Amino acid sequence: MPVPASVTGSEDERRTPPPSLRERRRAAAVREIVEAAEAHIAANGPAALSLRAVARGLGMTVQALYHYFPSRDALLTTLIAKTYDDLVATVQNAVAEAGTAGPDGSADGASFIAATEGYRRWAVAHPERFQLIYGTPLRHYAAPVEGPTTQAVRRMSAVFEHELFGAYTREQLAAADVPALSPELHAYLARLRPGEDPRGLPPAALALLMSYWGHLHGLVVLEVFGHTSFLGEHRAELFRMSMRNLLADVRRRVPAAP
Q: Can you tell me the mean pLDDT for 167-180?
């Protein structure tokens, strides 16, 4: 009779040695540095971030901090990727709490509305970290090509892509009712998501996704940067109304399954 994996551990767990004391100490130091950098951003804004300021807050020398992050760009890349991951986790948790209903799987599209409201709540609660990823680009910082920040952006995009279009087939999305795309734009969008990729959106749906994203994200940016403060406590209600209108537009534009 085989011994349960819960008793012996998985084969990978048995094969992979535990991290050494030195590795654990390094991981703990990296976490402490990242937390200190996040606190510094929350207090002073992203533009004020420097290795010297973070080191000073930790009682370290800059030279000691270089052992963990060789440059400001390396620390920024870690912070940006972590910020995206924290935001994605918040949105995913909001979807999980709302259920699995998709754009045409419920009367009110509960999961999509939950995703957008989770996004908004996180941004409003963490304005400085939101500015880190969506505010004015930081001078002299260049994200590594196809690096952690790019992958994090794709994870974010995938969440909303699923909530908007996950219930539809590729054929339905290709037949979406959108104004005719120019040949140049159509070809460009097709290169972004190759047609042979069964997971990729056809150009018509990708154009819609970018339009919807601009609508959703634009409302959140206006609120985070204080441009809708005159609405006071009504901002949440107006945001939800706007997201319901957006969802209704998806249903109107994407044809029903045969």
A: 92
